[in-house]
Amino acid sequence: LAPNFAKTKLVLSSRTPAILKAFETSQAPSLCDTLQTRLKYLGGVLDWRGDLRTEIYEHLQAANKSWRLFGKFWSRSAVRLQFRVNVYKAVVRSTLICGLEAVPMSLEMLQSLEKFQNEKLRQLLCGEACIKTVVVTEADEHVTKYRALTNESIRRQLKTP
What we know:
Shape: elongated
Largest sheet: 2 strands, parallel
Strand order of the largest sheet: 1-2
């Protein structure tokens, strides 16, 4: 039985640069067309450099796609906030963090995941992530001031880790 090269994908490894040269000079030119720099394997993304940022990027893209699929649902005032938060946790957040339990995270990776989550939680609040205060000055002028809530207080309010 001959191998089915149409279904074969190979990932280059930075540790073995001679492999590329061997494939380019081989008698199987169709095999050279299947060389890739990254590959999806068991739900994860393998990068030829061993860079885990590719995996994080893929998760952010997938979670953003899940968010966009719901469209205006997130800002509808007719839908209770707690229900929207539960849908966010079940659909978007689970897509974001699923499979990352075993990935060794750098501080940069954690910050990018938290930044995404903080942006979406603030959008869920539909402008209620700020405290509005009206101050009366000595000249009887009303000055409106806004103060943004901290990310920790928003997470605490929405009961999201």
